[in-house]
Design a protein that fits this description.
alpha/beta, 2 domains, six-stranded parallel sheet, 30% helix, two-stranded antiparallel ribbon, Rossmann fold, globular
Length: 255
Amino acid sequence: MINKALLLVIDAQYDFCDEKGALYVPGAEKDMERLAAFIGNNGEKFGDIVLSQDTHQVIDISHPAFWINRNGENPAPFTPISVEDVENDLWTPVFGKERGLTYLKQLDKQGEFPHVIWPEHCIEGSKGAAVVDSVMTEVKNWTRRRKQPFRVIQKGKNPFTEHFGIMQANVPLDNDVDTRVNVPLLDLMCEYETIYIAGEAQSHCVANTVRQLLDYPGIADKIIILKNCMSPVAGFEHLADGIYGQLKPSQFAEV
């Protein structure tokens, strides 16, 4: 049996969606208010609601504490780090140069976004990692009405690879199955006619989720992007234009 619709909510978390959050995305609080209203008004459509949570350690490949320069200093947030930077000892991972070089070279080989250092965000167990109240309230209301649990997928827990898209880490690791393709989620998506996608940030984790799903045409064709329920990280407004340009105009909607 094919169900009608699945709602995939990407990283609707305090650190992205509140002005006091560590990596606040301008406009995200209004995005989440619109998304919450959409869930409240259309909950009967959804056979499943899946929430992803960006989840990190303090020492994480995308955080300052992972890297040091010759003076023992950490990079400032939003510092880009390239293969050449590591080869020239401008920045060195605290766990050793070769590990960082291997990761950055693989990013380049795969055509991923350039590596950027973020403010410490969505630390596991912290307030910043929690789903914002506006969305969580309506998700809990939905599960009570449906008498069915919502689903949560944590991503980013491995500190040696970023995990923007929900389907797999930017560089999957052989020794960690949680960084590789999320087959149960793929199987779940196959059960639905429509997959609504919303969340933060439009420029990064939502875009990379879409990019990953483009590898599965039977699923990618089901996507509907709720474009006024997401916003880009400031300074990266057009980073993902090429990804969204691969979808049809009919795959975008507003709530």
